[in-house]
Specification:
Helix 2 packs antiparallel against helix 3. The longest helix is centred in the C-terminal third of the chain and has 28 residues. The protein has one domain. Helices cover about 70% and strands about 0% of the residues. It contains three helices and no strands.
């Protein structure tokens, strides 16, 4: 079980590294946020699962499952809030973007 836990933890670390590279390479804040959120969600889940599988004798599997549920439920919500705040403050899309669904949305409150 230690080897399986190590492999899953390593996969999680690789996903987190690729997410960091995606943040560096993306052209605007919206693309960076998408790359960072998806990678941190999957990378954190794999990393935590690897730790729980590798240390199964400590009895912390239930706590790690609670952490995973917390990450799954809060990461997309916070990313959406940050993206909407960036849009309402006037942060522009990159010139390569094809479509802006909120272009004609003149509301200034958060929904």
């Amino acid at each position: 079980m230690d080897i399986l836990g190590s492999i899953i933890t390593l996969l999680g670390s690789i996903v987190l590294l690729l997410g960091a590279l995606g943040i560096l390479r993306m052209p605007d804040v919206y693309n960076r946020m998408q790359a960072g959120t998806k990678a941190t969600t999957l990378g954190t889940i794999l990393f935590l699962l690897g730790i729980s599988i590798g240390n199964y004798e400590c009895g912390c599997f239930g706590k790690i499952i609670i952490l995973i549920v917390f990450v799954i439920s809060t990461n997309p919500v916070s990313s959406n809030a940050i993206a909407r705040a960036a849009h309402f403050t006037g942060t522009k899309l990159t010139s390569k973007s094809v479509k802006d669904d909120l272009e004609n949305d003149n509301r200034k409150e958060f929904i």
